[in-house]
Design a protein that fits this description.
Length: 459
């Protein structure tokens, strides 16, 4: 029985919702899309079948931090037949992982790495039983945008036609299944539980300008517990972190321009409670296995319900009450529209590329990569759909800021979910919510008053 295998390999007496159904589907060799909420044990859904099938598994992963975390978790639990190759490694570490590929049970690689012919040769003769698309929503959200190699995963899947495909994600917008079927030229058996996380309360606040926002933020951080603050740009990330530091809190920043070592240092400090607050762009979160994050604050609205659910889902993985608070001021609309639409590829770009005319270099590179797998007509259709999806998601989030109904129901409706039961602490529109009060120590050297000293003593 499957429960006996679970007990044998992991020591658990029962599955979490959705896990058993996904694993059974995979063991029946059905290509499967598993949609489970954040913190619900998605990794088990490929780890247990790997042990049962006694064949190696390829995990295609979007971020270095996610690979590092999952490799660490496996090794912590005694699994040493693991390989991972990414750009953050030094030459010796990389060479050692390449050497161990053929004797590994679990192999973690990025789509960009696998699609290089000289890299693909390293794994092409491995008899994979399972190919995992971790954070599968990234294929459609990033593949037609700034990570075009993600949209070419079908090329890899075709090379391992004997392997079962397992896509895993916590957020599945309505178009995800159709995108995956198109990209991979296959059909998925979908197993889905609710994406709702009842232990995260939802709150939103409107302000007249950023000065008001920051004033509210600095006061709130006094008692927000471990906190991630999401912002829309690297410039604002640094500015806001400096303001928080001047208020007395040790604060980390995290964005895509930091080196691998800098990102690792900040993550380590946050995970070990050396700093209570991270100010970050959306690059931060996947692979951050910190279970006691109490507060997620969006200094700027997310650009879609999918991104918002993914980001707030990093709170409360220990099951305890947590909170998600979004902030807005009128100038944010222009900022978000610029972020979303300024550099989008249009049909005019595809037409120009097809005719051999000049196209902005970064757009040209993306179209060139995608055109190795898709026809120009397909690309035109893809980019039209991408624009409309971004527009729909953005409009949905703009509606969120002035909402007078249940925020949770409003978000879930976007994913086709109807809430049957609301939690006791739901959102600021239908519950009398009090913000969490977990005192954040001020560690920057300055003179504490007696009240702060008392709070530190009894925290």
């Amino acid at each position: 029985m499957l429960i006996d295998e679970l007990k044998h390999w992991f020591g658990f007496d029962s599955f979490k919702p959705g896990q058993e159904e996904i694993i059974q589907s995979v063991l029946k060799q059905k290509n499967t899309l598993g949609i489970l909420p954040t913190g619900s044990g998605k990794s088990l859904c490929y780890q247990l079948p790997t042990y049962i099938k006694k064949q190696p598994t390829l995990i295609i992963s979007p971020l270095i931090s996610l690979m590092d975390d999952q490799v660490m978790q496996l090794k912590t639990h005694g699994e040493h037949n693991v390989s991972c190759i990414h750009s953050g490694m030094d030459d010796d570490e990389r060479a050692n992982n390449i050497k161990n590929l053929k004797k590994s049970r679990f192999i973690f690689l990025s789509p960009e790495f696998i699609l290089q012919p000289h890299n693909f040769r390293l794994i092409k003769n491995i008899n994979f039983g399972l190919v995992v698309l971790d954070e599968a929503h990234c294929l459609s959200e990033w593949g037609y945008d700034f990570r075009p190699h993600y949209a070419l995963i079908g090329k890899i899947i075709q090379q391992f036609s004997y392997a079962t495909i397992l896509g895993l994600t916590a957020t599945a917008p309505p178009h995800l299944l159709a995108d995956l079927n198109q990209m991979l030229r296959t059909n998925f058996n979908v197993i889905k539980t609710s994406m709702n996380r009842n232990n995260i309360s939802l709150n939103h606040k409107n302000f007249s300008d950023d000065e008001e926002k920051i004033k509210w933020l600095l006061t709130t951080l006094e008692q927000s517990g471990p906190t991630i603050i999401y912002v829309s740009s690297k410039k604002i990330c640094s500015m806001l972190a400096q303001a928080i530091y001047q208020q007395g809190f040790l604060t980390g920043i995290y964005h895509g321009d930091l080196s691998y070592q800098e990102r690792q240092t900040v993550q380590h400090q946050f995970l070990n409670n050396e700093i209570p607050i991270i100010v970050a762009t959306s690059a931060f979160g996947m692979g951050i296995n910190k279970k006691d994050i109490r507060t997620i604050i969006h200094f700027h609205l997310s650009t879609s319900p999918s991104n918002y659910l993914q980001e707030i889902g990093r709170a409360g993985r220990d099951g305890n009450q947590s909170q998600a608070i979004s902030l807005f001021q009128p100038d944010d609309s222009f900022l978000l529209e610029t972020l979303l639409f300024t550099d989008m590829i249009t049909n005019e770009d595809v037409n120009a590329f097809e005719l051999g005319l000049d196209v902005i270099p970064f757009k040209k590179e993306i179209i060139e990569i995608l055109s190795s797998y898709y026809t120009y007509n397909e690309l035109r259709h893809i980019f039209e759909n991408t624009y409309q999806r971004k527009r729909n998601g953005y409009i949905r989030m703009l509606g969120y800021k002035n909402l007078d109904q249940c925020r949770r129901a409003y978000l879930m409706e976007f994913f086709g979910e109807n809430l049957s039961d609301k939690p006791e602490i739901c959102c600021d529109n239908d519950t009398n919510i009090e913000l969490i009060k977990i005192f954040n120590r001020k560690k920057v050297k300055r003179k504490f008053d007696y009240k702060e000293k008392l709070k530190n003593l009894f925290k």
